[in-house]
Design brief:
It is built from twelve helices and 13 strands. It has 314 residues and is α/β, with parallel strands linked by helices. It has a single domain, classed as 3-Layer(aba) Sandwich (Rossmann fold).
Length: 314
């Protein structure tokens, strides 16, 4: 199969390109930078240099690639992950204007399928309780801070653009809602490990905020499964099997790294100093992956954070 990957040189794109090439697919990777061409070619892919906001050039490289499927992984996050609302502005534009351009270019190029990366944060920040959220859970149902709304709204625009095209029969659009992606090559993971080693990564309050994680290799394998077996017009949660409280995640991470356990800081202080960190570290996001397991015939290689963190010890 000919597969076009937009965002091919990112933390998620590189593992996906490796998996696709290993599976025997003919891969074209989109990059804005000519300097990234050797990286993609070294992975066994063809490089296409274009900016997703340049609709004419984007259409040209897609027509030249003649893809059967297109994968949308475009983000523009800081290397160490977002820390403040301004860090998300460029990615929000990619998820809105960039998605619309990519979908139209894919359809014009004759692509049959488009798989797009979304995030579980579309369910809204805040306390979602203890029952894991399924794809049927209302989106944007909880948002304690208005400055986070643009990020949720941008992801919902991405989803609606892809799913509307699928409902209209224009392309087989599939959306993957990823949990918090971690693993080798992820800038945010590297930053977190460095902070844990130095005991700079705190627990906020009692550390009871819960997140659903996914190892980057499992995210790549799920994307391949969605290309091959996902149902058009459907959304899939892509997370591991065990949502985990921050206190358990960070304590285990410290043990794996041979580092001191995390220290605690009061909730009011984090809310004052870093509102974004406060929301992230106090939200409760248990998410279920049953639908992806059932329909994509996908199983995480790293079913919990324990197996995944073990790969990062070195």
């Amino acid at each position: 199969m000919r597969i076009f990957v937009a965002g091919a040189t990112g933390a998620m794109g590189i593992p996906l390109v490796k998996h696709l090439v290993a599976a025997g697919h003919q891969v074209t990777g989109l990059t804005r930078s000519e300097a990234k061409r050797p990286l993609l070619e070294g992975l066994g892919a063809t490089a296409a240099v274009a900016d997703v906001f340049d609709r004419e050039r984007l259409g040209t490289v897609l027509r030249e690639a003649r893809p059967d499927a297109v994968v949308h992984l475009l983000t523009a996050l800081p290397k160490q992950g977002p820390r403040r609302p301004a860090d998300l502005v460029a990615t929000n534009r990619l998820r809105t204007e960039g998605t619309k351009n990519l979908v139209e270019a894919a359809i014009s190029a004759g692509a049959r399928r488009l798989v797009a990366e979304s995030i579980v944060l579309v369910y809204g920040y805040g306390d979602h309780g203890f029952a894991p959220l399924t794809e049927a859970h209302p989106v944007a149902s909880s948002s304690p801070s208005p400055w986070l709304k643009p990020t949720i709204d941008a992801s919902l625009v991405l989803e609606d653009t892809v799913l509307s095209a699928a409902r209209a029969g224009r392309i087989e659009g599939v959306v993957l809602r990823f949990g918090f992606i971690y693993g080798a090559g992820s800038g945010s993971t590297d930053a977190m490990i460095g902070m844990v080693r130095k005991r700079w990564m705190p627990l906020v309050g009692d550390g009871s905020g819960v997140w659903s994680w996914i190892h980057v290799d499992d995210a790549a394998r799920a994307t391949l499964a969605a290309i091959e077996r996902g149902r058009a017009g459907e959304v899939y949660n892509i997370v591991d099997d065990e949502p985990v409280a921050w206190r358990d995640y960070l304590s285990h991470c410290a043990r794996v790294l041979g580092a001191p356990g995390p220290f605690r800081v009061p909730v009011w202080l984090v809310r004052l100093v870093s509102p974004y960190a406060f929301i992230v570290l106090t939200s409760r996001f248990p998410v279920a992956n049953d639908k992806a397991r059932r329909e994509l015939d996908w199983r995480p290689m790293y079913p919990t954070y324990r197996e995944g963190l073990a790969t990062l010890a070195s």
